[in-house]
From TrEMBL:
It is an enzyme of class 3 (hydrolase). Residues 173-432 form the Peptidase M24 domain. Its cofactor is Mn(2+). Keywords: Dipeptidase, Hydrolase, Manganese, Metal-binding, Metalloprotease, Protease. SUPFAM superfamilies: Creatinase/aminopeptidase. Pfam families: PepQ_N, Peptidase_M24. One of its GO terms (biological process) is proteolysis. This is Xaa-Pro dipeptidase. The gene is pepQ. One of its GO terms (molecular function) is aminopeptidase activity. PANTHER family: XAA-PRO AMINOPEPTIDASE 3, XAA-PRO DIPEPTIDASE. It catalyses: Xaa-L-Pro dipeptide + H2O = an L-alpha-amino acid + L-proline. The lineage of its organism: Bacteria, Pseudomonadati, Pseudomonadota, Gammaproteobacteria, Oceanospirillales.
Amino acid sequence: MTSWQNQDLQQLQITHLEQLLTRTRTLLAEQGWNRLVIYSGHAHPHFADDQSAPHPGYGHFLHWTGLTGLSDSWLEITQDHPPRLFCYAPEDYWHATPTLPEGALAQIMRIEPIKARGWPLEQVAEVGSTVVVGDIESLSIPVEKSHCNPRSFVSALNALRIHKTAYEARCTLEASRLALMGHRAARDAFYQGGSEFDIHLAWQKGTQQSESDAPYHSIIGLNEHAGVLHYQHYQNQTPQTLNSLLIDAGVRYRGYCSDITRTWAALDQPRFAALINGLDQLQQKLTQEVKPGVDFVELHDKTHQGVALLLQASGLIKGQITTEAIVETGMTRAFFPHGLGHFLGTQVHDVGGLETASGQPVPPPQAHPALRLTHTLEAGMLLTIEPGLYFIDSLLASLRNGPMSQHLDWSLIEALAPCGGIRIEDNLWVTADGAENLTRASDHGLGVGQPEV
């Protein structure tokens, strides 16, 4: 266990806040501002309704505070004074009043409760050199519109979140540990014959996390549903035949997200289990290549080469065809249509993955439009590695009707298609000479494929 994993969490947070304050003040000076105000955001009611979706909090507000679910609150950062956190804590008998934070936050910043919604700062002379970021369009604030969410400043602020501190990695490690307790419970529920809804309940009980507190809607797909990349439902009836489970689910801890995927095969599906194990081996090879200086687009290309080799080794692709030809003709894209990974942080798909610090776009290559990360990796980056292999009718149709159809074993594809697909996803923190796999560090033998007997 490395030293940052053993350090006191509160001290790590103090160091994180001190570093963030220094970097933010430097950014303000570089861009000619004296004051930054970050709005937490607030829940938005559904159209023609008085109910709102859960409000997790604005990513930049969480970067400083980690206070998820806190609405209508503000953080002020200046060059000369300690940060001030204005927490909306009204006298309310309809809802529980938020508790004011203590610990590291109270040591670094002044915390002031506010009773009313809206702009909390006094009308100061410096308002002309104030920049405001957040969901403020519906609010009345004494700041010029051009000073609200200016693109160049927000892009630079996004860039401050790309390199994570040890505190942020520690929070993600804990989020991974809690998530894997849920993955273990979900796996057990699957092998006990549970429905998607049963597995969802097992996941929640295993993590002790409510659905509204989750960083994203958990993907729990049985059989063919495992081939729907962002499958969004929970069927409450168990299929007559259980073939597979794909669960993509994470936990939020102090504002930071884990994002983990595991795939399981029914005990009477040995060929699909072997395919899962093959993809897991590829995923582990890819994670071992994560280090500073690696071009993530090139690593994504290597993933397609690995998928091609796996398709050949499993017999899904047959005949005299090279690995290069399998990739170049687009065959692997029919089985692996998404990107290899993305930045991770206070948002599941964290900011900055497709732009420079100055806001210049760095789009994915035309052949891989779903790729969410185009950077060369650097120490401190936190990202996911998540190769997949799926049996998706609409994508396979282009192969079935094309010139490469002869190289595919369609009988084997049809035999495995009821299993839907596979994804294996871990969360990694890039270090000076490699990367720490925060997911496998908490795995404790959970594994993939089928449980060990």
